[in-house]
Amino acid sequence: MTISTPAATVTHTAALARFGHALSDATRVGILLTLREAPAFPTDLADSLGVSRQVMSNQLACLRGCGLVEAIPEGRRMWYRLADRHIAPALDELLRVTLFVEPGCCAGEECHCA
């Protein structure tokens, strides 16, 4: 049995690179995992993730720029949700992936595996 998958395009590559960039920061990952459960206000996200409101604002701007979250106005406030219904299941699948990580590898911003 052969499984047909679409050929990767420049658009696919760019989209996956944006998704990878979003996942490269622990705060952004926390935001995405929280929003996969339910929409939230930035202040609630900041409080639950233990970051300042300024950090939350910057990270939400990044995720909006990557096309992964969207802001929805509600009166004078904005709440956030995942921008596409496919993102939550994709995150769920990624959580099912188990990787062996060498102790001490990738301890900082730079990977030293090679």
What's this, in brief?
The protein is built from five helices and two strands, in the order H-H-H-H-E-E-H. With 114 residues, it is mainly α.
Outline the structure in words.
By secondary structure, the chain is mainly α. It has a domain at 14-88: Winged helix-like DNA-binding domain superfamily/Winged helix DNA-binding domain (Arc Repressor Mutant, subunit A), CATH 1.10.10. The chain is 48% helix and 11% strand. It contains five helices and two strands. The chain has helices spanning 10-23, 26-35, 42-49, 53-65, 87-96; strands at 69-74, 77-82. It has a two-stranded antiparallel sheet. Helix 3 (42-49) crosses helix 4 (53-65). The relative contact order is 0.12. The mean pLDDT is 87. Residues 8-102 form the HTH arsR-type domain. InterPro entries: ArsR-like_HTH, HTH_ArsR_DNA-bd_dom, HTH_Metal-responsive_Reg, WH-like_DNA-bd_sf, WH_DNA-bd_sf. Pfam families: HTH_5. This is Metalloregulator ArsR/SmtB family transcription factor.
Q: Report the uncertain regions.
A: none
Within CATH, the superfamily of the domain at 14-88 carries the name Winged helix-like DNA-binding domain superfamily/Winged helix DNA-binding domain
Q: Architecture of the domain at 14-88, CATH level 2? A: Orthogonal Bundle
Estimate the strand proportion: 5-15%
- CATH top level class name of the domain at 14-88: Mainly Alpha
> Span from first to last CA?
36 Å
Q: Which structural class do the helices and strands define?
A: mainly alpha
Which radius of gyration do the C-alpha atoms yield?
16 Å
Compute the number of strand runs: 2
Shape: globular
Main sheet properties: 2 strands, antiparallel
SSE topology string:
HHHHEEH
Quick check: average pLDDT?
Answer: 87
Q: State the share of residues found in helices, binned by percent.
A: 40-55%
* Strands in their spatial order, largest beta sheet: 1-2
Helix tally equals 5
- What name does CATH use for the topology of the domain at 14-88? Arc Repressor Mutant, subunit A
Protein name: Metalloregulator ArsR/SmtB family transcription factor
Domain HTH arsR-type: 8-102
